[in-house]
């Protein structure tokens, strides 16, 4: 699962490409859920999903209300935050609160937020 605005600095294209490298069995067992509203250049993300023929494997929830986020996080097996840059990284803390493992980029503020509790 990923949470954030769909825009280039979030590295969602890289996340989708990494997901595509998983074997078919893992892709069948685990869907990639991308939760967030459209930002700038978001259309490239949807084009990549189409080009890689991952429409059945990737779920775009769109913007989710704050009161629904706990349920969404709690249903995830893993939270991934591959951003190129973040000012803080609140979704990491939200994932920790829901008790799911976190995989995060090792840049900007993210190591400070995640500390030793995430995989980089």
Q: Low-confidence runs (pLDDT<50, min 5 residues)?
A: none
Characterize the biggest β-sheet: 3 strands, parallel
What is the spatial order of strands in the main beta sheet?
Answer: 1-2-3
Shape field: globular
- Give the helices and strands as they follow along the chain: EHHEHEHEHEH
Number of continuous helical runs: 6
Estimate the mean pLDDT confidence.
97
- Beta-strand share of residues: 5-15%
Query: What structural class do the secondary elements suggest?
Result: alpha/beta
Radius of gyration: 14 Å
Oligomer: single chain
- What is the strand tally? 5
Terminus-to-terminus distance = 16 Å
Helix content: 25-40%
Q: What characteristics describe this protein?
A:
120 residues, two-stranded parallel ribbon, single chain, 5 strands, 3-stranded parallel beta sheet, alpha/beta
Task: Explain how this protein is built.
- The chain is of the alpha/beta class.
- Helices cover 38% and strands 14% of the residues.
- The strands form 2 sheets. It has a 3-stranded parallel beta sheet with strand order 1-2-3, with helices on one face. The protein has a two-stranded parallel ribbon with strand order 4-5.
- Helix 3 (43-51) links the parallel strand 2 and strand 3.
- Helix 1 runs parallel beside helix 3.
- The longest helix has 9 residues, at 12-20.
SSE arrangement:
Layout: E1 2-3, H1 12-20, H2 24-29, E2 32-35, H3 43-51, E3 58-62, H4 66-74, E4 79-81, H5 90-97, E5 102-104, H6 110-114
Parallel strand pairs: 1-2, 2-3, 4-5
Helix pairs in contact: 1-3
